[in-house]
């Protein structure tokens, strides 16, 4: 069932799904630009027949869906179905792809009440599983059995884990700064890993060059339009879990800009179908030395600067989805918020003390929320903070505020404790 087409974000040229997919096209054939250390131009967005969906599907029936199983509503996904089942994917394989089904938690920290959407309990412990699953399914349906990706860590470990479950060969390009936990996770899943003596932006460009020549299906963020598409699924899960009521604010940590763009796309689709009346404000949180998106919002100009932050998952000097991410913030009357590495670690500690162990990029949303409160007079009690990765993926950040415990004999402990 081909109920969708591809639309260029920049030149607005529209393409059939048949043309794009049969020719394995990633960016707009008319205006694509994929220069080194630059945001991508010609990113393709997938669009559906929203008026028909609105006529055929009621919001009440959609709210009966189970979170974490996007294949149960085929009309909003760019994959092939046969009688409501994914073609070329067995029921057993689908059962291995179910995401966490209970994501939303009420939290109170420093007299601040808010909700978190916790994706640190997914298959490989990160939000990136949402994109990896969709990309892997598409590769199988296209008859491709090798997939590549550039990653600071989470996208790579996610793709490696999903490919391991489906029996697909995987190639991951990472910068030398990758946290050990994420590197080991990638290797443990059996993926081929290529550690680049450089930063993420260099790994991204190398992955593009090699994948084109090797004819690997490329999962690079934003470059493959299914990465944006997969990340919209959190909005649908949120909508289902909250029984049709969305928060007023959604705080999202931003590196390459694909998560916040995907969230915006999901919100737009709910609005297009008439299932919500307004879109929440999107607040993009960036580290102060990896703030290309916020600088672009302030100046309407991109300037490449090498990025450096303890939050490796949002460390990107050239956000590949910069322009779409900027639109997501501007169109929702949102804002960008800079936070320091110290503020990120303090937020990580606060979340951990409340039983939520996050990596720095995830705790950045709490740091952004707390800073936003100081500069904005709006009532933020109805806020959702996106938690995108588990703390065990980057133990080095936890070691910054957890000193090694003392080792003593049993007799000494008894004397001290009893």
Word description of this protein:
The protein is α/β, with parallel strands linked by helices and 418 residues long. It has a domain at 104-125 and 229-399: Rossmann fold (3-Layer(aba) Sandwich). It has helices spanning 17-22, 50-56, 59-62, 91-95, 129-141, 154-166, 180-188, 200-214, 225-231, 233-241, 258-272, 292-299, 322-331, 341-353, 360-375, 395-399, 410-417, and strands at residues 4-8, 14-16, 44-48, 81-82, 85-86, 104-109, 112-118, 146-150, 169-175, 192-196, 217-218, 249-253, 281-287, 335-339, 383-387. It is globular. The mean pLDDT is 95.
Keyword list:
single chain; 418 residues; alpha/beta; Rossmann fold; 4-stranded parallel beta sheet; 15 strands
SSE diagram, text form:
Layout (H helix, E strand, L loop, with lengths): L3 E5 L5 E3 H6 L21 E5 L1 H7 L2 H4 L18 E2 L2 E2 L4 H5 L8 E6 L2 E7 L10 H13 L4 E5 L3 H13 L2 E7 L4 H9 L3 E5 L3 H15 L2 E2 L6 H7 L1 H9 L7 E5 L4 H15 L8 E7 L4 H8 L22 H10 L3 E5 L1 H13 L6 H16 L7 E5 L7 H5 L10 H8 L1
Parallel strand pairs: 7-15, 8-9, 8-11, 9-10, 12-13, 12-15, 13-14
Antiparallel strand pairs: 1-2, 1-3, 4-5, 6-7
